[in-house]
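FAQ

Q: What does a record look like?
A: Structure on top, sequence underneath. For example:
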């Protein structure tokens, strides 16, 4: 193993070259994770590995994660897979949907406070390109978090999301401050039954507040987000059927970190 050390925001970070991505292609390389673990006053880390998620509790809205909306849960729940994989199903009716969201609105992009988000997911299309899915941060976790008929996220919400819509095979990115939205419609190619690491780095720059989106380690879009007036957000992920076939979104992990 070969370890590299580097300074980031006046903190020392270490990277094992045998296991870490190539330098310059990881959204985490600037995250002062060691300093955050050493001193919680500096920052915070949220990690969901999906070792266990009780759907009865989620459906009742009393857990860390809630089944915010579901036309029918179907086979939504833990799967028999190594290192924890959660399956979220939209049942076999056009525009049926299921979303899982954090119970509290605890995430907020703030100027001068960088934030990092990454999730690993996969979906095997039931019918060519019909599935809709979304993952990220959103103040809206209700019916039509993905609108019907491939219309994507709501027209008015606060959030930072990655998503795919019916009729396409591309990963899209979006930042939203109310009705002011920036969308990159073809940020990356989406291939059925393939695992993707999707996420973003919010740089917390007081002047720009850039959100830099990554897919599988590559920068795919950069948006400027107006943070004044934003409301707190839920972490959310979910899936919507784009036809008469059940769709199953698999999520391996979600990790979010930020400067306090």
């Amino acid at each position: 193993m070969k370890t590299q050390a580097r300074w980031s925001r006046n903190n020392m970070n270490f990277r094992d070259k045998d296991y870490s991505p190539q330098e310059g292609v990881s959204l985490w390389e600037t995250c002062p994770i060691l300093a955050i673990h050493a001193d919680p006053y500096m920052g915070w880390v949220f990690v969901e590995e999906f070792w266990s998620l009780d759907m009865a509790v989620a459906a009742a809205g009393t857990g860390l994660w809630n089944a915010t909306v579901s036309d029918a849960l179907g086979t939504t729940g833990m799967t028999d897979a190594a290192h924890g994989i959660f399956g979220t199903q939209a049942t076999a009716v056009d525009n049926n949907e299921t979303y899982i969201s954090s119970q509290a609105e605890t995430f907020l992009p703030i100027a001068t406070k960088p934030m990092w988000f990454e999730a690993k997911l996969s979906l095997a299309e039931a019918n060519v390109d019909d599935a809709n899915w979304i993952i990220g941060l959103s103040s809206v976790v209700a019916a039509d978090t993905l609108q019907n008929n491939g219309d994507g996220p709501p027209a008015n919400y606060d959030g930072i999301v990655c998503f795919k819509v019916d009729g396409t095979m591309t990963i899209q990115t979006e930042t939203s401050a109310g009705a002011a939205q920036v969308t990159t419609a073809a940020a990356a190619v989406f291939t059925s039954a393939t695992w993707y690491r999707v996420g973003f780095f919010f740089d917390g720059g007081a002047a720009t507040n850039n959100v830099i989106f990554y897919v599988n380690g590559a920068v795919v879009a950069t948006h400027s987000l107006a943070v004044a007036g934003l409301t707190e957000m839920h972490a959310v992920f979910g899936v919507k059927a784009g036809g008469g076939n059940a769709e199953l979104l698999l999520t391996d992990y979600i990790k979010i970190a930020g400067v306090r």
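Q: Is there anything notable about this one?
A: The radius of gyration is 18 Å.
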